[in-house]
Amino acid sequence: MCYCMPLVTFQHFYIQLALYTEKFEEFQSTLSKSNEVFTTFKQEMEKMTKKIKKLEKETTMYRSRWESSNKALFVMAEEKTLRDKEQEALQAKIQRLEKLCRALQTERNDLNKKVQGLSGPQVPSAETTEDCASCTTPAISENVELNSSDVCGQNALQAAPPLPPLPPAMPE
Question: pTM (2 decimals)?
């Protein structure tokens, strides 16, 4: 028997052992790199999970703000509609009152002319003429009372306390 055969076999096994050791070390380094990548991935996933939770909270907060703002907008729109209708009604009322006031002033002037016409042609004294010249037709916004004891009819107008001024017209 030859003793060289076991030596060749031994060397062959030694070379295979070195080859397997090298491959095992490569496997271990690949495994450790894989573990590092997995750990990094896990950390990134945790960060992203935290970000997602934070963004979901913000989304919920902004959604609730939007909903409350939207509700407030609808309420304000309804209030505006009601106020616009109220303004239109008040404008119509003001126009009716102004028309009525003009009609009453016209009627008062006509009645004053009739009273003067029935009392005959009188020559007014200088004092009466001065009083009548200083009389003016009251403004629409004043309350006026008629004093029946006045002969001329012009001094019969006594101004009552004025009504509060009208609010400024709303631009359309």
Answer: 0.42
